[in-house]
């Protein structure tokens, strides 16, 4: 019979083993998210050299592009828990994994015409939303240039999720580094017309992104064909053969994921309009503080995606103690990662603001002061941001997607946005009140999602979600 001391040692060993597995999977995924986000920063900096009008048009175009992005994002992300649970139940179930990847790619291919239609209507959509005609005219061709890369970007996400499920995340990181550098180089050539190429300006940035998305997808396809662990799945066999039950499962899991992400993304975009009603300096300061928060969010997001895979593998195996360990460690690591940014931001908000704006310029003084004030609140909500994303990813690993969708809708649009609107526009807090509203929304999401995760995984309930 096992002694209490031996049982305690076994428990500690199990936690250490899970932590090691999560870190091995998670740190490359965290770096991948950080580097991918840097692509947007590079694009903004290089487009910004063309002037304020192209920069504003690119921002407008990206809002519409993001809306279309979400149409494919849900089904692409749904592939991850399906594969993870399949491999958790039987690591040799190659045919089922291949089927999930194939139907994920089918979903993206079949949605492509609808998404293309949205892209081609960008200028009309922007005008209908009351945007200035000159900006809409620039945004339309830019988004059309981005359009060919959409399907490759979604396919890349599916293939990366497959590789994460089999524990291969380092080479995808290398590929992301390569495509990021390629994007900067192609921007330099096509935006500015260097080396004798035509000066395409904003359209050049869109063309560069599409080319890089295609190259990234093809690089992953090539890697999967030669990697020892990946090639045994023979992913691209019977590519044209449908399986409609699996196709429906991908959509059944995918659409709530896409809606949940839309709830969150739209909240932060909507708050731009609240700031716009307060003042121009407030909008500029909001964008800077939001960029800091977004950078801080990338590492917890990557770790949480890895945690979702680990939870899915354990759930597929029916190992609920391991599910609980994976979920708890994911939340802990996500909070730790975001605090690496949050603590310096709280202690040195003026210094962080100075990284974005020249504090010696008198015209920047008001914006710098606002950024410093916003960052203190932003750093506080980072704790809840890390908790909600890690809990949400763990729930996806359990294939629990509809309740989290409802939770995020309530947290962000029944609590967060009304609070931001009231505190920002109707209270003495002013612009800082918008950030306090965001904090309340994230706190509500974190509390409800973590509560849902505990409810589904505690010993008396474990397994009921399936």
3D structure, described in words:
This protein is mainly alpha-helical. It folds into two domains: 216 residues, no CATH class; 206 residues, no CATH class. Helices cover 85% and strands 0% of the residues. The protein has 15 helices and no strands. The radius of gyration is 23 Å and the shape is globular.
Quick recap of the structure?
By secondary structure, the protein is mainly α.
Determine the structural class based on helices, strands and strand pairing: mainly alpha
Distance between the termini: 33 Å
Number of strands: 0
- Biggest sheet, in brief? none
Ranges with pLDDT <50 over ≥5 residues?
none
Number of helices: 15
How many discrete domains?
A: 2
Q: For the residues shown, what is the average pLDDT?
A: 87
**Order of helical and strand elements:** HHHHHHHHHHHHHHH
Content of β-strand: under 5%
Q: What share of the residues lie within helices? A: over 70%
Radius of gyration: 23 Å
Please tell me what the overall shape is.
globular
């Amino acid at each position: 019979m096992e002694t209490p001391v031996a049982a305690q040692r076994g428990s500690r060993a199990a936690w250490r083993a899970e932590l090691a597995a999560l870190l091995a999977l998670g740190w490359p995924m965290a770096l991948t998210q950080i580097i991918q986000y840097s692509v947007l920063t590079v694009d903004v900096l290089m487009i910004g050299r063309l002037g304020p009008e192209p920069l504003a048009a690119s921002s407008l175009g990206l809002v519409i592009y993001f809306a279309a992005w979400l149409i494919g994002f849900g089904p692409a992300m749904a592939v991850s828990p399906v594969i993870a649970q399949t491999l958790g139940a039987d690591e040799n179930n190659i045919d089922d994994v291949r089927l999930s990847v194939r139907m994920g790619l089918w979903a993206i291919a079949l949605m492509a015409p609808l998404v293309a239609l949205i892209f081609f209507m960008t200028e009309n959509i922007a005008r209908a939303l009351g945007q200035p005609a000159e900006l809409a005219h620039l945004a339309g061709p830019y988004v059309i240039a981005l359009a060919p890369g959409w399907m490759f970007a979604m396919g890349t996400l599916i293939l990366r999720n497959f590789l994460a499920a089999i524990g291969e995340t380092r080479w995808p990181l290398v590929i992301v580094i390569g495509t990021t550098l390629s994007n900067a180089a192609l921007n330099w050539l096509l935006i500015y017309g260097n080396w004798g190429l035509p000066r395409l300006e904003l359209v050049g940035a869109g063309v560069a992104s599409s080319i890089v998305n295609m190259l990234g997808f093809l690089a992953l396809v090539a890697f999967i064909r030669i990697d020892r662990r990946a090639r045994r799945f023979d992913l691209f066999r019977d590519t044209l053969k449908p399986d409609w039950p699996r196709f429906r499962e991908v959509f059944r899991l995918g659409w709530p994921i896409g809606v949940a992400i839309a709830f969150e993304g739209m909240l932060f975009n909507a708050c731009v309009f609240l700031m716009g009603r307060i003042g121009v300096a407030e909008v500029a300061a909001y964008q800077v503080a939001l960029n800091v928060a977004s950078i801080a969010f990338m590492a917890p997001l990557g770790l949480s995606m890895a945690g979702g895979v680990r939870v899915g593998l354990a759930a597929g195996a029916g190992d609920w103690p391991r599910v609980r360990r994976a979920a708890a460690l994911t939340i802990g690591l996500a909070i730790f990662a975001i605090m690496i940014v949050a603590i310096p931001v709280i202690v040195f908000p003026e210094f962080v603001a100075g990284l974005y704006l020249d504090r010696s310029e008198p015209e920047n003084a008001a914006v710098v002061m606002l950024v410093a004030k916003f960052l203190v609140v932003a750093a506080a909500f980072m704790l809840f941001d890390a908790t909600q994303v890690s809990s949400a990813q763990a729930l996806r690993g359990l294939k629990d997607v509809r309740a989290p969708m409802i939770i995020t809708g309530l947290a962000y649009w029944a609590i967060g946005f009304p609070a931001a609107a009231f505190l920002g526009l109707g209270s003495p807090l002013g612009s800082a009140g918008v950030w306090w509203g965001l904090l309340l929304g994230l706190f509500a999401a974190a509390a409800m999602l973590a509560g849902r995760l505990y409810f589904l995984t505690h010993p008396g309930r474990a397994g009921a979600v399936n």
